[in-house]
Amino acid sequence: MLAKVALGVTSMTSVAAGTCAYRLFRQSRTDQLTGLGNRAALVAGFNRAMKRGRGLVGVAVGDMNGFKAFNDVHGHRFGDQVLIAVAAKLRDTARRGEVPVRLHGDEFAVLLPSISTPEQAEHRVREFQAAVSTITELDGQPVEVAMSLGVMTAPAAKAQLPALLASADDRMYADKHTSRQHTARAVVAA
Q: Residue 61: which CATH number?
């Protein structure tokens, strides 16, 4: 009888410990404000894409255009609501396997793990931008939300995340400074 009780207690403790460990694991890969993945989730998704090693892998990096004005005019809580709404649009627009994440501040990224061509990556970026631009009201306040995005692709077998992030970031800033329509440019790295 005592052995059965001990086994039951041990089993319940193991389940509780496993549940707690899973929650901590999820928290370590989740942005607390938006509920999107964070940089650790991006790295994990990228590593999964690398193991498959086929086709192209793409990374889009973007930030909000004029985000500081939301905080300055309406306050930081309103700015947080904008970030939450943007995260929801990125999450809703993402296809199976794509990993939208909040990197920090008003900067986001989307891992595109199975891209056929750079043009397909550009198309996906335009879809994300269009989705974000549909945010026209928050808390009864009219808003115009836009995101500049840059995307970089590379063969999955050779891709390196830091290089893709840096190149996509450069393209995002070029997009921000040269285009009012905020279109993306993608190229294949050698």
A: 3.30.70.270
